[in-house]
Design goal:
Blueprint lengths: L3 H8 L5 E2 L25 H13 L1 E5 L33 H9 L12 H10 L4 E5 L31 H11 L3 E7 L28 H21 L5 E5 L10 H11 L4 E4 L15 E2 L9 E5 L15 H13 L3 E6 L9 H17 L13 E2 L2 E5 L5 E6 L10 E5 L3 E7 L4 E3 L1 E4 L2 E5 L9 E7 L2
Parallel strand pairs: 2-3, 2-9, 3-4, 4-5, 5-6, 8-9
Antiparallel strand pairs: 1-7, 10-11, 11-12, 12-18, 13-17, 14-15, 14-18, 16-17
Helix pairs in contact: 4-5, 4-9, 6-7, 8-9
């Protein structure tokens, strides 16, 4: 790497990039674990699966449940913590016999008669996504799968007579047929289960509402309930690559996760465990939420960021532009991560047209420029101004992605410091050679006329 002073100037002002602000924050945000706490797996099959997952780069996370009916923040409104982002509908007071009864009663109103998982899979494949995660159970305990261990599920509500009532099965099936890496989202806390929030006591916060040492039988019942549901998912819903466990205030030790994973990996060799924010051997990749780490990280990680301001569907959502998604993807890949985009299907069971339109634009860009994204890895000099750099695994081929700021026109030239090219440079979207010159450690690329105002990606060999 050359000319450190110029490189530092390019990096100056780069801060931890958060998608959230005071108006946008919805729900509990899991922070990223400390880098020093990452523990590399020792299972070769898990390591191989992680390497394959790192090639995918772009995935989707679906939040879909009771909260999709009124279009409110997922699950959290039944938690009685006094924080701004827990909003409740109307003037219904927080009372088990009122608000909770209303919320849990949405089971009999969630009736997705237009449920079309094939459309979901087609839209996400068209968007260039390579892996998926589907919420089988969020913190409210409502299951989108037909669990044998509770009737608090979509298969026992208004949708019970539909031949596709076992929604999760059909979602996973549709995405497997499209060749996606498969991920199962599951919440460790369950606020509907009597062994987590026991009806004998009030529910003051997100934690179990009793002392486990005073009621060890209750907690043992909860541990068994959780293990049984996870075994059910790992046994009856096809092959999985990722088990994504949410709700970090319940640890893996709390539910004997080691035993659960040992059993699951007999059915799914190399299964990636994502025990979110719980530092240690079962957090196979880290998941900074609604944000991007400040710098490159040399271990597996994924930024999970919503397409709107919320994880689930809300009416009249302010969706991010396709250009915003592409620029975010470029930054995440340059820093060595994957991008998990949050999308909320409607209560009716479809992906809204504004989402479809934006994701189609992202997919068009990736079809032309995907070499700069998929299968790439970190390159030491990874950022200068609006340009992000990724590299092939050969260590010789570099991709420069110019993240055109929203609302701006393409300039006549693009400049960066370091990453000096050797030989020809190709504009990927046109498969066309472009001219450039080097002035010391500065590279100046002349753009062809008539290009669409969008992010650009260039391929070249690195001069040693």
């Amino acid at each position: 790497m050359r000319n450190w002073k110029k490189l530092i100037a390019c990096l100056a002002g780069v801060a931890f990039t958060f998608e959230m602000n005071a108006q946008q924050v919805q729900g509990f945000v899991h922070k990223q674990s400390e880098a020093s706490d990452y523990v590399w797996p020792t299972d070769k099959q898990v390591l191989d699966k992680l390497d394959k997952w790192q090639d995918m780069k772009f995935g989707v996370l679906f939040h879909w449940g009771l909260y999709s009916v009124p279009g409110i923040v997922e699950s959290w409104s039944i938690c009685s913590e006094d924080v701004d982002w827990i909003r409740r509908t109307g003037d219904v007071p927080y009372d088990y016999n009122k608000y909770k009864k209303w919320y849990f009663g949405l089971k009999d109103k969630l009736n997705p008669v237009n449920f079309n998982p094939e459309q979901w899979a087609e839209v996400m494949k068209d968007a260039g996504m390579k892996y998926m995660l589907f919420t089988t159970k969020h913190h409210d305990g409502f299951c989108t799968f037909d669990s044998k261990y509770t009737d608090f599920s979509i298969a026992h509500g208004a949708f019970k007579d539909n031949p596709r009532k076992n929604v999760a099965y059909h979602v996973f099936d549709a995405f497997r047929k499209q060749g996606f890496m498969m991920g199962c989202y599951f919440s460790k806390p369950d606020w509907h289960c009597e062994w987590f929030w026991n009806p004998y006591f009030a529910t003051p916060n997100r934690n179990p509402n009793y002392k486990k040492d005073r009621h060890p039988d209750w907690w043992k019942n909860y541990q068994d309930f959780t293990a049984n549901q996870l075994d059910e998912l790992m046994s009856d819903y096809g092959s999985f690559d990722i088990l994504w466990l949410d709700g970090g205030w319940v640890t893996g030790d709390d539910i004997h996760l080691d035993n659960i994973l040992e059993k699951a990996r007999k059915k799914h060799p190399g299964l990636i465990s994502v025990d979110r924010s719980i530092r240690g051997k079962n957090e196979n990749y880290q998941t900074p939420e609604r944000g991007i780490p400040t710098t490159q990280l040399n271990y597996p990680w994924e930024s999970c960021i919503t397409l709107s301001n919320d994880w689930g569907w809300v009416p009249n959502a302010p969706y991010k532009s396709a250009q915003k998604v592409i620029n975010t993807l470029a930054e995440i890949c340059a820093k060595g991560g994957c991008y998990l985009l949050g999308v909320g299907p409607t209560a009716d069971g479809i992906i809204e047209k504004p989402v479809v339109d934006r994701l189609h634009q992202v997919g068009e860009w990736l079809r032309a420029n995907g070499k700069a994204i998929y299968n790439t890895r970190n390159t030491p000099n990874y950022h200068c101004g609006n340009t992000w750099f990724t590299g092939d695994k050969d260590g010789k081929t570099i991709y420069a992605i110019y993240a055109l700021p929203e609302g701006e026109k393409l300039p006549e030239t693009i400049e960066w410091t370091g990453n000096l090219p050797k030989g020809k440079m190709t504009l990927l979207s046109k498969n066309k050679r472009v001219s450039y010159r080097c002035e010391g450690d500065k590279v100046i690329v002349k753009l062809p006329k008539g290009l669409k105002d969008e992010p650009l990606a260039f391929e070249f060999k690195l001069k040693k």
